[in-house]
């Protein structure tokens, strides 16, 4: 009986059905610069986005900024699963802040699947300004809502520190390995340079003055 219960629990976990908000979050992620970095954690994003719909939020501005900063810091220190979780929550709460409900999900997802993503305008403004713009924006219709959402969401995601070299420098263990390998390369290179100079110097004969 216990074994059967455990099997049922495992099946329930493995058959997790994401919300439309989770699907939308991953669709946005797929068109962002951080997709390659966070792609292995799409399930985490879908799960966290789905759970975020149940959150009671008193101050959307501060909450969205907090989750963005958590996502930024997590990616900077190479904690990618944590980053994926925060990104999922952020993207779902952006929807919820504008009155989104799952009843609207199928229509919104359909619009985004047909969207010309190459035409989406990206902004280089600071996260605070982007979030303020989103919270104050009044869409004319669902299509306008969809476009504005992906525009702001992608602008935020593209500012995350996805560059591998930057992340290495901010991850203690990886940074130490990088520095150690760099020192090894420098020492090895110096050794061969000295060896070559000595070999060349040994082949020069001094003839002196006549």
Structure description:
- The chain is mainly alpha-helical.
- It folds into 2 domains: 2-163, no CATH class; 171-202.
- The chain has helices spanning 2-14, 20-30, 35-38, 42-52, 60-76, 80-96, 105-113, 127-136, 142-157, 164-169, 172-202.
- It is globular, with a radius of gyration of 26 Å.
- It starts with a helix and ends in an 8-residue tail after the last helix.
- Mean pLDDT is 81; it is low at 4-13, 174-183 and 205-210.
Structural class determined from secondary elements: mainly alpha
Helix segment tally: 11
Number of strands: 0
- Range of strand content: under 5%
Assembly type of the shown chains? single chain
Sheet with the most strands, sense and barrel status: none
H-E order? HHHHHHHHHHH
The portion of residues assigned to helices is 55-70%
Separation of termini?
Answer: 105 Å
User: What Rg, in angstroms, do the CA atoms define?
Assistant: 26 Å
Q: Taking all residues together, what is the mean pLDDT?
A: 81
Low-confidence stretches: 4-13, 174-183, 205-210
What count of domains describes the coordinates? 2
